Amino acid sequence: xxxxxxxxxxxxxxxxxxxxxxxxxxxxxxxxxxxxxxxxxxxxxxxxxxxxxxxxxxxxxxxxxxxxxxxxxxxxxxxxxxxxxxxxxxxxxxxxxxxxxxxxxxxxxxxxxxxxxxxxxxxxxxxxxxxxxxxxxxxxxxxxxxxxxxxxxxxxxxxxxxxxxxxxxxx
Length: 171
What we know:
Organism: Cephalotus follicularis
Strand content: under 5%
Protein name: UBN2 domain-containing protein
Pfam families: Retrotran_gag_2
Radius of gyration: 21 Å
Order of helices and strands: HHHEEHHHHHH
Largest sheet: 2 strands, antiparallel
């Protein structure tokens, strides 16, 4: 697996392909969660099923979750391990890394709106010119809204595409 050092998360996300190649059910478990076994207690409350009550299907799900967690842990350095080691499921681990390095969808949307608003209002910060603002707005908008881009494109590649588009426009 690709090893994650805490930088270039967009490149590390290629782990999706590695995990799918091992067992597609592992990837489904990471995306959808493991749905760990539950039972209803005498008070009608739904609680986690005790391990000694697991059936073969319950053990299969727990085993897949453990395998997915193992893959993620083996592909992270000690800082990232500390970040995700308390997670119960592989889905929680993956989601924690994703939110840490990409932010939530709300945060991404807020950043785009801020850049677009600054561009529309022609608000420049110290040491910025119109070209810098235009590039920031285009990069933010392109990176989050282009459905044709794949997960394999790194931020650097997307930036290069946007900068080429800006240069063509200027010509």
